[in-house]
Amino acid sequence: MAGPDTRAAIIDGKAFAAGLVERVAAASARLEATHGLKPGLAVVIVGEDPASQIYVRNKGETTARAGMRSDTHRLADTISQAELLALVGTLNADAGIHGILVQLPLPAQIDSSAVLGAIDPDKDVDGFHVVNAGRLAVGLPGLVPCTPLGSTMLLKHQLGDLSGLNAVIVGRSNIVGKPMAQLLLAENCTVTIAHSRSRDLPALCRAADILVAAVGRPEMIRGDWIKPGATVIDVGINRVPSADPVKAAEGRTRVVGDVAFAEAVTVAGAITPVPGGVGPMTIACLLANTYNAACRAAGIEPERLDA
Ligand code: NDP
């Protein structure tokens, strides 16, 4: 347990993600050697949003590094919904593409849920399709959203069996909070989901053996909200002004999580840093999902990747 003279173990998501990408690359190479099947991921990006451009470039580079086919479709932000749906239809029908990811946000003239709903659920490597949300809810195999999947892998790596642990998830979005709750329930945790209407959030958090923060509010969760020895997964990615006033005046920024790390690290038993914790796991799990989707499409049992 951490205390004034001790510090929490730092959960190195960057290193774990690098290992996962290597395992996916090795499994994909064996799949190609034994079955002539190369997993393929298509990423669709609409418009010029700089953050999305960076994410998409990283995804493309990591996919290619893992020895997979990587197609990026860059579309003007004037594209119509019908044109985008037609592209999704073409990718659904392409036997060489096993994963389709449409980068969000989409421009205002496009109904995001209609586009995400048009993706073949068996190629939905983001795991956002209602069919995959339903499969997760009832415990059927399917494609699971990458960020909560990666967070669960880090927890199992850190703690082993999660059975019976009290897990508190702060945040109830469809892409992080809710699927995280389903995954931890499947690991036999006792799960509480907190949100903006929850009463006495600090007290709820203090009951957690596992605390997952997915709020989008910089350093909201303080050290004294954390049970001594708890394992803290900080999903938040928030850009705030640099801590150095001179740099801040120049408009320089830094990235912080939803947890006040400097405080939490003296109380928690283990914690993910931001950056370098959950973030790198998201792309690694996208590749794992693409590999699994390729295997399932061909009726081949995928290798286990969560070593
Ligand atoms: P959303 O904005 O969709 O959801 C935020 C959730 O936090 C909501 O459920 C909201 O409650 C809750 N919330 C907001 N304010 C409070 C509060 N004061 N007290 C308690 N709960 C509150 O965010 P996402 O789930 O998409 O993302 C969460 C964070 O994770 C963001 O920082 C995002 O950048 C990051 N993220 C990181 C990823 C990664 O790769 N590491 C991937 C995806 C997200 P309510 O429902 O009541 O409004």
Strand neighbour order, sheet with most strands: 1-11-8-7-5-6
Order of helices and strands: EHEHEHEHHHEHEHEEEHEHEH
Structural class: alpha/beta
Q: What percentage of amino acids are in beta strands?
A: 15-25%
CA(first)-CA(last) distance: 26 Å
Average pLDDT metric = 96
What composes the largest sheet? 6 strands, parallel
Count helical runs.
11
CATH topology-level fold name of the largest domain: Rossmann fold
What's the architecture of the largest domain in CATH terms? Answer: 3-Layer(aba) Sandwich
Binding site for NADP(+): 171-173, 237
Function: Catalyzes the oxidation of 5,10-methylenetetrahydrofolate to 5,10-methenyltetrahydrofolate and then the hydrolysis of 5,10-methenyltetrahydrofolate to 10-formyltetrahydrofolate.
Family: Belongs to the tetrahydrofolate dehydrogenase/cyclohydrolase family.
Keywords: Amino-acid biosynthesis, Histidine biosynthesis, Hydrolase, Methionine biosynthesis, Multifunctional enzyme, NADP, One-carbon metabolism, Oxidoreductase, Purine biosynthesis
